[in-house]
Amino acid sequence: MKMVRTLSALALSAMLVGASVLPAAAAFQQSVLDGIILIRSGAPDADGTMTYWQGTGFFVGEEGQDPQYIVTNCHVVEDFILAGKALGGGELHVLFDQDDEAEAYLVDYDAEKDLAVLRLAEPTDKRAPLSMRQAEDSMLGDEVYAVGYPLAADVTVQAVNSSSKEDATVTTGSISRLLTESGTGRNLIQTDAALSGGNSGGPLTDGTGAVIGVNTYGSDLDQNLFYAVSISELLPILDRNNIPYAIAEAGGGNTMMYVAIGAVVVVAVLAAVVVLSRKKKAAPAPQQPSQSQPEEGRQPVLRSMAGQHGGMVVPLHHQPVQVGRDRAVCRLVYQDGTPGVSSRHCQIFFDEQENLFVVTDLNSTYGTFLADGQRLAPNTPVKLAPRSSIYLGEVANTIYLELE
Fold first, then answer.
1. Which end of the chain is more exposed for a tag (fewer CB within 10 A), N or C?
2. Cβ(33)–Cβ(165) below 8 Å
3. Residue 247 DSSP SS3
4. Burial tier of 2 (Cβ tally within 10 Å: 0-12, 13-18, 19+)
5. Nearest to residue 369, comparing CAs of 388, 351, 352?
6. pLDDT at res. 257
7. Comparing C-alpha atoms, which of 136, 123, 118 is closest to residue 76?
């Protein structure tokens, strides 16, 4: 009993120390500033006089790589788009600093979603790509941060006297609602993080620094209501243009989780010491290493949870199974026009020696994802344990990997 009391006291001490050292809540991640950029667009008016507007954008790309692509609001570059189609002579630049700029090029846009994607002629080492995360209902009430340039969007360039990343402003608020806008069908994030013209096209980030929305406008009826276009609306645009991006892991700011993990580790280590101290000195007979074997009599299967399949099960034998819309080669076939599913989307087989499923994305348009939202690299096999799941493009296209 004395040993038990000692263990309990040590575990409690570990939790208290952990709680005192770790921060109480997530704070704004300064690294977000490395990914934002000031955008300047210009267009001639009817008599040929150039008028300029400015807004904010942020870089996307693979983690650790120099970025080339920029996300912003469509309305930030709307006049440039109209000038290019009608008047001609439009200008589009990004400003890294007061006297450091580069020409940008329009890649794609969706006026209804109020999103646009730009690119530089070459990747730049002056900024870093920001990772993204789709907003979920569980995030209601979470603290968020809106980042942009003061008085930058929708005003003339003469009103701006700074443009470096350090000159950006950060406003803080919380997520109050996730909604679908009537008329457009776009997914929006409602927040009380104050937005002004300077935030148009800038990122709305969570406490880990992941972008969850593109700041777009404030309410005309309530000065405390502001809106950002959800990242879920941006990903299809990036996918159809084969633009690389990084999806952040969910969570990352739960202090109590880390404290609990630390306490469990302490208890486990101390418990092991007690157990070992009570063992006889005679060493146990050595055990032979064993390989993981499939559970006897159980068959590896794919179970589709898509509404069109009604829980259909596809057995895996000794050959890979392709999944997609092409009826000629796919054994798990989706209907033509299924959102998020390519003709030959992915391939799955079961490795009997390792007792693991092996999933390979076949360079699909909308991507193959793990249950936590991590996108699989194209043409790169990934091993998954039984009872795992994946989804094709959208969560509605979830497939369970099971033994039954």
1. N
2. yes
3. strand
4. exposed
5. 388
6. 45
7. 118
At residue 228's C-alpha, the angle toward residues 53 and 102, to 5°, is 35
Look at residue 124 in the predicted model and tell me its pLDDT: 96
> Is 99 or 223 the better-scoring residue by pLDDT?
99
pTM exceeding the 0.70 threshold for the entire prediction: no
Which residue reads 């972008």 in tokens? 211
Give pLDDT, residue 298: 81
Report percent pLDDT > 90 for the chain.
45
Structure tokens at 314: 């596809």
Tell me the two tokens of residue 10: 């040590």
Residue 90: what residue type?
Answer: G
316 alpha-carbon distance from chain centroid: 31
Closest CA to 234 of 113, 130, 127, 129: 113
Q: Render pLDDT for 138-168 as a digit per residue (tens, 0 to 9).
A: 889 899 999 988 653 344 344 445 577 877 8
Helix (H, G, I), strand (E, B) or coil at 98: coil
What is the C-alpha to C-alpha distance for residues 325 and 322, in angstroms, rounded to an integer? 10
Kindly tell me the burial class for residue 225, based on how many C-beta atoms sit within 10 Å of its own C-beta (0-12, 13-18, 19 or more).
middle
